[in-house]
């Protein structure tokens, strides 16, 4: 069930801390907008040393997973910690300690197709100043944050044309980004449930999964955890739109404050 007014984690009431009291959190964390502030260019979204240190300490106590729309190898390099689980391309590729690994079984079909779509989308980068094509293994983003305002409608129309030519693929949306993704029943929420199952945490009542994210694609994970009360979703910088998250944090600094409280 979506809500338009999720509760602040650090509000007048202590509801979030009451919910997690006496249980071990398993932390599922989005990267952009959650662990790092949104910046103009994706390559400049570097995680702070303070956030890295907090993640390293949390990972000594809890399961910590980064669940991102970025490419898995990209986010692994950015975070740079070995004892975390990483899910990239919105969950299509996952790896973690002790040989945890999953890659979508349709790799051999999807990769050549995505390579062709990437070439088609590169035309938008050539045509419009400020457009940046962002290839991840299982998705291709078209960033338009730095495009001219008056060209955005045309960019999105050209994107729709490419999408229409490629059955089997669907559109994803995010912060000043549209993406082409495989039209398959797999997303961040399914990835979180898969990780919980594989790590033997799904049936462990002493564990409470908490997912923190800030964007459209995180709704799948909020919804997956909300179902049957499996866990808790926290939306960062809630815009007022309806969400499956139950709680909110103001910004990346408040995410860090929550981490310190959990340690
Ligand atoms: O699932 P996430 O970890 O939140 O990744 C979502 C997308 O994040 C990145 O793009 C966004 O952040 C950039 C850096 O702050 C910003 O410049 C851009 O406008 C945002 O859309 C990343 O580049 C994408 O690949 C991710 O899909």
UniProtKB/TrEMBL annotation:
<protein>
    <recommendedName>
        <fullName>Trehalose 6-phosphate phosphatase</fullName>
        <ecNumber>3.1.3.12</ecNumber>
    </recommendedName>
</protein>
<dbReference type="InterPro" id="IPR023214">
    <property type="entry name" value="HAD_sf"/>
</dbReference>
<comment type="pathway">
    <text>Glycan biosynthesis; trehalose biosynthesis.</text>
</comment>
<dbReference type="InterPro" id="IPR003337">
    <property type="entry name" value="Trehalose_PPase"/>
</dbReference>
<dbReference type="Pfam" id="PF02358">
    <property type="entry name" value="Trehalose_PPase"/>
</dbReference>
<keyword id="KW-0479">Metal-binding</keyword>
<dbReference type="GO" id="GO:0004805">
    <property type="term" value="F:trehalose-phosphatase activity"/>
</dbReference>
<dbReference type="GO" id="GO:0005992">
    <property type="term" value="P:trehalose biosynthetic process"/>
</dbReference>
<dbReference type="InterPro" id="IPR006379">
    <property type="entry name" value="HAD-SF_hydro_IIB"/>
</dbReference>
<keyword id="KW-0460">Magnesium</keyword>
<dbReference type="InterPro" id="IPR036412">
    <property type="entry name" value="HAD-like_sf"/>
</dbReference>
<comment type="similarity">
    <text>Belongs to the trehalose phosphatase family.</text>
</comment>
<comment type="function">
    <text>Removes the phosphate from trehalose 6-phosphate to produce free trehalose.</text>
</comment>
<dbReference type="InterPro" id="IPR044651">
    <property type="entry name" value="OTSB-like"/>
</dbReference>
<keyword id="KW-0378">Hydrolase</keyword>
<dbReference type="GO" id="GO:0046872">
    <property type="term" value="F:metal ion binding"/>
</dbReference>
């Amino acid at each position: 069930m979506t809500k338009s007014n999720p509760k602040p984690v650090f509000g007048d009431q202590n509801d979030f801390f009451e919910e997690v009291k006496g249980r071990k959190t398993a932390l599922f964390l989005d990267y952009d907008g959650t662990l790092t502030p949104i910046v103009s260019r994706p390559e400049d979204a570097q995680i702070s040393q303070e956030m890295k240190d907090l993640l390293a300490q949390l990972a000594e106590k809890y399961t910590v997973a980064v669940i991102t729309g970025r490419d898995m190898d990209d986010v692994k390099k950015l975070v740079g910690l070995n004892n975390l689980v990483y899910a990239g391309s919105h969950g299509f590729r996952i790896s973690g300690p002790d040989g945890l690994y999953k890659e979508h079984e349709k790799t051999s079909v999807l990769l050549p197709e995505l390579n062709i779509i990437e070439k088609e989308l590169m035309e938008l980068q050539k045509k419009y100043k400020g457009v940046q094509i962002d290839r991840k293994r299982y998705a291709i983003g078209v960033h338009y944050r730095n495009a001219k305002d008056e060209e955005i409608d045309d960019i999105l129309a050209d994107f729709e044309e490419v999408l229409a030519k490629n059955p089997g693929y669907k559109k994803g949306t995010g912060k000043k980004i549209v993406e082409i993704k495989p039209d398959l029943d797999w997303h961040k929420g399914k990835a979180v449930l898969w990780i919980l199952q594989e790590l033997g945490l799904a049936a462990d009542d002493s564990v409470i999964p908490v997912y923190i994210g800030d964007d459209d694609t995180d709704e799948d994970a909020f919804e997956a955890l909300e179902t049957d009360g499996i866990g808790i979703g926290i939306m960062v910088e809630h815009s007022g739109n309806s969400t499956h998250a139950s709680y909110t944090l103001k910004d990346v600094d408040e995410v860090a404050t929550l981490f310190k409280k959990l340690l």
